[in-house]
Amino acid sequence: MKKSSKKIDKNIKKFIIVPIVMCIVMCIFTAAVFYPNISFAVSIGNMFLSDKQVDYSKSYENIFVPTDNNSDTIDASEIEFPSINKQFGEIRIDKRNVYAKLFFGDGSVPLRNGAGVYAGSFIPGYGKTILVAGHNNTYFNGLKNVKKGDVVKVSTSYGNYEYKVTSTKIHNADSKKSYDLKADKENLILYTCYPFDELGLTEKRFFVYADKISGPQIVGLYD
User: Fewer CB in 10 Å around end: N or C, the chain?
Assistant: First the structure.
């Protein structure tokens, strides 16, 4: 009886316990390898299948207060400069149905909720390059219809700005010729993944270039 009992125990380990342990190990390994893709697929599925828009508003602070300031200049001491993930304005192209909340920073929080200014560039009024990113299948989808001469409006708490589109171009995602952060004039560059309506990161970017035509200049920055 003892030999029979030991044989049964060995069979249990061999044919039941070992396969279960191997199955668990394989499941853990598979989850670790494919989780990013699964997570992305679930997020995309929720975006299209849900009948309610996901509200991310609690994940950021809004310091934007509309103003009718039409002066030519504004002192830097009067401005609340935005920090990362704060909404400090709005951006729109009325003719092309483009509208987005404008954030400082271009990480996940800004791009889930609107468009984001690259932290290595500048905010309106500096007299430099303003580089703004947005998703191609949400807030910046309308950029595909933008034409030369269109006006981009940017509203902030310290002033309202307008930029006239001079051109649109398609560049590789890693191209260093797509923008100039050392430009000596104020210019606005909007960009998004290309082709439009394609999900996930792509190898190319669509750029909209525009020059400033109105809005207050920030003074007293280096006093």
Answer: N
